[in-house]
Amino acid sequence: MIMTLKDVPLGSSAKVVKVNAKGPMRRRIMDMGLTKGSTVFVRKVAPLGDPLEICVRGYELSLRKSEAEVIEVE
Amino acid sequence: MSITVALAGNPNSGKTTLFNRLTGSSQKVGNWPGVTIDRKEGEIKELGATVVDLPGIYSLSPYSPEEIVSRDYLLYDDPDVVVNIVDATNMERNLYLTTQILDMGIPTVIALNMMDEVEKQGSKIDIEELSRILGCKVVGISALKGDGMDELIETLKSVPEKPKPIRLAKASENTIGKISKVLEGDVSEDKLRWFAVKVLEKDELAIERIGDLWNDVTGFIEELEEADDDESDSIVASERYDAIGEIVSKVLVSNKVPGELTVSDKIDKIVTSKWLGLPIFAGVMFVVYYISITTIGGWGTDWVNDVFFAEMVIPGVESYLESIDVAPLLVAFVVDGLLAGVGAVLGFLPQMAVLFLLLVILEDTGYMARIAFIMDRVFRRFGLSGKSFIPLLIGTGCGVPGIMASRTIESERDRKITAMTTTFVPCSAKLPIIALIAGAWFDKSALVALASYFIGILAVLISGIILKKWPSLTGTPSEFIMELPPYRTPGPVAVVKSALEKVWSFVKKAGTFIMLACGIIWFLSAFDWSLTLVDDINDSILANLGNAVTWIFVPLGWGTEWQFTVGTITGLLAKENVIGTFGVLFGYADIAETGEDIWGIISSMVTPVAGFSFLVFNLLCAPCFAAIGAMRRELGSWKATGAAVLYQTMLAYAVSMIIYQIGVLAIYGTFGLWTVISFITVAVMAYILISKDPFGQYRKRATEVAI
Amino acid sequence: MNLATILVGLGVAAFLIAAAYFTIKDFRTGGCASCKNRDKCSKKR
To answer: Shortest Cα distance from A7 to chain B (angstroms)?
Structure first.
């Protein structure tokens, strides 16, 4: 079962394994620091479940669930 | 000798503040060719150097116009120095761009900004070590406070040497070396490494640039990908960050604890929570308007209207002028025209003042940013992104900066749609209209204000759906990646200062622009075409003009009264004019004599439903000229602007009509031709909303392809 | 037309001219006076 960033529970961390996207979205996600091996901490989830606020490389970021979905973690 | 300095850095790194400090009033704003991005240039007087402010970017990817403009400038325009501004409180993220800039081999100086925040946090940065590792000068500054400016300028006096690029892992560097050999001769020596790395990342623009040589390098790239079991762009990004991580661990002693919930987070857990978020938002807004319109502010407004103006100012001025024998006509002009109009507008000052104060407090705490966060999901259901919400938020103050804020949206389609719909949300000029309607028919209920914002947002969302189906506005939806600053307690001085600024703006506008408009309105309403004074206002020039067009608004319930129509039209100049016009036309000045106040008169002219319909029309229809001008700047042409204004007005008409017709049907059981038309309109709108292709664009495309 | 009327008339006229002056001045600055984002803005006037 592949776990993605959107499955990570609030208040816990995960490590990025792979980014399953192409083109600008892929570039954007990687440029923001979400690369293989980086640790992500899930800080908040907005009402209606979307977007997520995460902490990666000392930096706060908001990501849509659809964007979190393409990021495989462990 | 005049050198050129390129200023590059992340958005929100303080670049603009730094640019302003360096160049002061010598700034010029132009355009980067081919794109609607501002190009800012200025001069550092102390050096006789030209500074070009590149757009804020996180990376030099080939995807967004900002990034493309920046990389092209750095590659081909040959700046002498790059000043890379780095946010010291977010070093890892900021240095990512730095690694790419350093690859370019242009002399670089790093301006490490926000050092004051670093100090506040209790962290320490070893600037010298950082400088040594990066091979270029690093200057610690605080652009906001002005620290380090002199040092920075001193550093620029001698053009620095070329920096050392930040090395990736051995295997990757190996591959880069191989690629470089192939590219030698095709690209200039300075830029060799940069191109080699970009090619390794499979950067489309770089690949395009090297043409056939691409075939010679694919083998090397595949080799690396196999060895690392990852795609090359991911490898490079990863290794850049790994290198950065190492550097940061050597130079930064941080006081922050990652992976822990801060106080802000704990608050946000509730405020942005799944179930409580939206209700809390509605609740907060209700309280704000309850305090400002219904209670405290409302009492103030009542006093100003009923006592200050009605009993003191207006009779006072009137009797004074009469006592010194000023001609009655002039007295009327001053009292019934100028004072009445301006007085009516200023009457709302207490409510506005309280409201401004509360909104400033709300914004300074950082709560407003959360709202965009909360609204993103809702917006996405309707095809827009949370990024489109920020211009709306700004638009609650004034539509002009709100419309301009749509520039931060990358998707051109989303940007245009946002620019067109920003004014649906009530701006501060429309607040008096809301207050007026609330006071005249609804007992100053705060629900009227809430309803106004709700309708505004609804209009934005519906427009999002409708406009996305319009052929010329197709495109891909925006991504949403945003920063949430921590909560803070607002400083009372700053808050009061900010609120007072807004109050002053309000007063100034009333005393100038609105006063002029009221003077003209008075004139047109006091005379008839032969320039004789009229006894009955309904014989005046204005009434004539009003009656000529007011029939258009009869289906909306208020077209029977020409004054309402005239009010709406004067609202095109400034929305406050609606109040001013009413003040003049409804004899605000006669309050003291007749004992009836303006609210009483208006409320007796049309039904509450019509009053609400009037409110909705004025909220949604074409904005004031200043806002229309701003739309023109964002949409690019008068044709597009005209179309946008037309759309807004038509939507306003349709919605107001539907509200009125269905309203009277529900309350009074009135049924007529227009009721039927309203139902048809609702059906048409529903069709456009639901249908996949209401405007026949797919059919058109099919025909084009066939041909 | 007595003196009082003339004086008051002139006063009002002066007031209106000042109002017009400030209004035009404000329009030429593109409405930036009421803007909150002046130090972030590219126009900055």
So the answer is: 16
